[in-house]
């Protein structure tokens, strides 16, 4: 049973950052400031009526199987997802992550695609709205990537703060839980931070 996935994930990041502070003497409060500015909080209300939580992962991945086949021909699906980077391999878009080029797909991308399909079929949202909502989900689910990206935009090294500079796909983390900075598996969802991972 999970007890506050965001707290758990931030505790893991905190341990990493704490070790980095010991190693590098870096404790300037910047990570807390970035997190409060760019990472949505767990339980935050959303435009689609499901508060942000890792508990939604099985639902969103399930929509990848059931709804994407009905929505993928809609131009909004392509337009929204190609406007976003894949947080697991950001030299690719969320429409086709690096693994999909070899015929696979990871669960962080499946969750974003499933959510996009739901937003088209159930809410008739625009491509711009879909992109913003899926990015919000990615920011919540993979805060490590977005904090590191923000550090890079500020010309600061994520490594100094204990964060990676390469995507999880390229670090062999395809079968690592999303809550631990990975891709959540390539087939069945791997996510011990939620109480149920049925897809």
SSE order and pairing:
Blueprint: H1 5-24, H2 30-38, H3 57-66, H4 68-71, H5 75-82, H6 107-123, H7 127-141, H8 143-153
Helix pairs in contact: 2-8, 3-6, 5-6, 5-7, 6-7, 7-8
Fraction in helix: 40-55%
Given helix and strand content, the structural type is mainly alpha
Order of helical and strand elements: HHHHHHHH
Distance between the termini: 17 Å
Extended strand count? 0
If helices are DSSP runs of H or I spanning 4 or more residues, what is the number of helices? 8
Uncertain regions: pLDDT < 50 for 5+ in a row?
Answer: 15-25
The share of residues in extended strands comes to under 5%
- Mean of residue pLDDT values: 88
Explain the overall architecture:
The protein is mainly alpha-helical. The chain has one domain. About 45% of the residues lie in helices and about 0% in strands. The chain has eight helices and no strands. The longest helix is centred in the N-terminal third of the chain and has 20 residues, at about 5-25. The protein is globular. The two termini are about 15 Å apart. Residues about 15-25 have low confidence and may be disordered.
């Amino acid at each position: 049973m999970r007890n506050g996935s965001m707290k758990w994930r931030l505790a893991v990041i905190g341990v990493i950052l704490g070790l980095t502070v010991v190693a590098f003497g870096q404790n300037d409060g910047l990570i807390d400031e970035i997190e409060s500015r760019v990472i949505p909080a767990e339980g935050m209300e959303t435009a689609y009526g499901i508060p942000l939580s890792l508990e939604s992962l099985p639902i969103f991945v399930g929509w990848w199987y059931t709804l994407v086949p009905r929505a993928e021909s809609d131009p909004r699906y392509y337009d929204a997802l190609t406007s976003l980077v894949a947080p697991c391999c950001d030299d690719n878009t969320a429409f086709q992550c690096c693994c999909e080029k070899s015929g696979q797909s990871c669960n962080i991308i499946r969750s974003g695609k499933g959510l996009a399909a739901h937003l088209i079929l159930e809410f008739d949202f625009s491509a711009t709205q879909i992109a913003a909502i899926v990015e919000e989900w990615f920011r919540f689910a993979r805060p490590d990537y977005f904090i590191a990206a923000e550090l890079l935009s500020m010309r600061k090294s994520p490594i100094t703060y204990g964060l990676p500079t390469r995507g999880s796909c390229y670090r062999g983390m395809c079968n690592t839980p999303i809550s631990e900075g990975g891709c959540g598996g390539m087939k069945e969802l791997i996510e011990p931070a939620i109480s149920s991972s049925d897809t």
